[in-house]
């Protein structure tokens, strides 16, 4: 019975990892996973938790919701999501799961954890009656969300370099979101924005965590086109949104010199979430590996369901992680190998490269 209950999802993770702190499922529709990040951050700030896992998952198991979205004119006829584009005509549903581990920075540095980004601030608000309709987004609500998030992070909106937008690719949703960004950011400096939905579609409850992971990792964007958005009739909004120019992203898809990114996620019922993340420059020295013992080597167990996947994904991922610029440079090779051997399922295709603990990784 537990496998069919959404309420058991968080409890299953806690059971598998033997976690004893707060464990709960949040449902605010499409903003659920970013609201979970906000709740996890609050738990860390109050000292309730010392480490938090915030995650989102979306699985499409029946056609009912897709039929309703289609009848409501929300789905793109050709299955492509074009955030901010003049040809935007809806979104495409997608499945996905994502998770982030949050930890106070001093503790992460002390424990030698890899740090992808800094979570600087967050906010959750609701539109209330701002749009006059329950299911219609409101500019005023999104502006308040952005200002509250800025206050939480101790920054000014004009300092923002890039926004990973909710960006569903619907004419109404995009117009409201771009107008709110323009009003909140102000100033004359252009603000870059994009949406992971142009690459993976709308993962609904997992959409916010997908945007956060993209913001932390900053991959390049698909379908790069300059948009011509439909703007509100207000002349003031037109002038403001004119300053919010959605350029082609940097070659690496990253933020500007300040490295300050915002991530937005909006729920159908009007619950909005925004988090600010900043770049982290890892200045820690690589971990000094223990001197070789009589065993002389560490065995790294690699395992996937096919030989092709083993070569293409598993081996290359570990090579990147253990390379000179990878996160593994600050981790113990012994710990990495122990995790791969004991904390993952072993399936059909596998191999086990080994190397002395003091050797340079990855092995050639």
Write a short abstract of this structure.
The protein is α+β, with helices and mostly antiparallel strands and 364 residues long.
Task: Write a concise keyword list for the protein shown above.
single chain; alpha+beta; Peroxisomal Thiolase, Chain A, domain 1; 2 domains; two-stranded antiparallel ribbon; 11 helices; 32% helix; 15% strand; globular
Description:
There is one protein chain. The protein has 364 residues and is α+β, with helices and mostly antiparallel strands. It has two domains: 274 residues, Peroxisomal Thiolase, Chain A, domain 1, CATH 3.40.47.10; 42 residues, no CATH class. Helices cover 32% and strands 15% of the residues. It has a five-stranded mixed sheet, with helices on both faces. Strands 1-2 form a two-stranded antiparallel ribbon. The chain is globular, with a radius of gyration of 22 Å. The protein starts with 8 loop residues before the first helix and ends in a 9-residue tail after the last strand. About 11% of the residues have low confidence.
Strand and helix map with partners:
Blueprint: H1 9-17, H2 32-45, E1 52-58, H3 64-71, E2 96-102, H4 105-111, E3 118-126, H5 139-153, E4 162-164, H6 171-185, E5 192-194, H7 197-200, H8 207-217, H9 235-243, E6 260-266, E7 271-278, E8 298-299, E9 302-304, H10 307-322, H11 333-342, E10 349-351, E11 354-355
Parallel strand pairs: 4-5, 4-6
Antiparallel strand pairs: 1-2, 3-7, 6-7, 8-11, 9-10
Helix pairs in contact: 2-8, 5-6, 6-9
The CATH homology group name of the largest domain: Thiolase/Chalcone synthase
Distance between the termini: 49 Å
Note the overall shape: globular
Biggest sheet details: 5 strands, mixed
Tell me the count of domains: 2
Strand content: 5-15%
CATH domain class name of the largest domain: Alpha Beta
What share of residues is helical? 25-40%
Alpha-beta classification? alpha+beta
For the largest sheet, list the strands in their spatial order. Answer: 3-7-6-4-5
Question: Radius of gyration in whole Å, from Cα?
Answer: 22 Å
Helix-strand sequence? HHEHEHEHEHEHHHEEEEHHEE
Count of alpha and pi helical runs: 11
What is the CATH fold-level name of the largest domain?
Answer: Peroxisomal Thiolase, Chain A, domain 1
Can you name the CATH architecture of the largest domain? 3-Layer(aba) Sandwich
Structure summary, number of beta strands: 11
Mean pLDDT: 81
Uncertain stretches: 219-257
């Amino acid at each position: 019975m537990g496998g069919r209950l959404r309420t058991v999802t968080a409890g299953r993770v806690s059971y598998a990892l033997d976690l004893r702190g707060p464990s709960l499922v949040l449902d605010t529709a499409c903003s659920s996973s970013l609201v979970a990040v906000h709740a996890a951050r609050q738990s860390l700030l109050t000292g309730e938790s010392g480490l938090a896992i915030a995650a989102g998952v979306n699985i499409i198991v029946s056609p009912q919701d897709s039929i309703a979205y289609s009848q409501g004119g929300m789905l793109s006829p050709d299955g492509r999501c074009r955030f901010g584009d003049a040809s935007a005509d809806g979104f495409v549903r997608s499945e996905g799961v994502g998770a982030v581990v949050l930890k106070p920075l001093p503790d992460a540095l002390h424990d030698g954890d890899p740090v992808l980004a800094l979570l600087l601030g967050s906010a959750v608000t609701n539109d209330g009656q701002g749009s006059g309709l329950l299911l219609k987004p409101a500019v005023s609500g999104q502006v308040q969300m952005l200002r509250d998030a800025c206050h939480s992070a101790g920054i000014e909106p004009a300092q923002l370099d890039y926004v990973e937008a909710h960006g569903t690719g619907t004419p109404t949703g995009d117009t409201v979101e771009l107008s709110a960004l323009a009003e909140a950011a102000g100033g004359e400096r252009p603000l870059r924005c994009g949406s992971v939905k142009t690459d993976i579609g709308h993962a609904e409850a997992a959409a916010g965590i997908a945007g956060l992971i993209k913001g932390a990792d900053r991959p390049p964007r698909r379908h790069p086109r300059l948009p011509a958005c439909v703007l509100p009739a207000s002349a003031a909004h037109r002038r403001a949104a004119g300053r919010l120019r959605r350029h082609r992203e940097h070659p690496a898809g990253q933020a500007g010199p300040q490295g300050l990114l915002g991530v937005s996620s909006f729920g159908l019922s009007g619950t909005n979430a925004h988090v600010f993340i900043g770049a982290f420059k890892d200045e820690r020295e690589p971990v000094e590996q223990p001197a070789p013992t009589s065993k002389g080597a560490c065995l790294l167990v690699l395992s996937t369901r096919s030989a092709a996947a083993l070569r293409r994904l598993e081996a290359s991922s570990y090579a990147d992680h253990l390379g000179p610029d990878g996160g593994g440079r600050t981790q113990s090779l012994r710990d990495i190998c122990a995790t791969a051997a004991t904390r993952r399922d072993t399936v059909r295709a596998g191999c086990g490269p080994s190397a002395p603990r003091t050797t340079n990784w990855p092995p050639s």
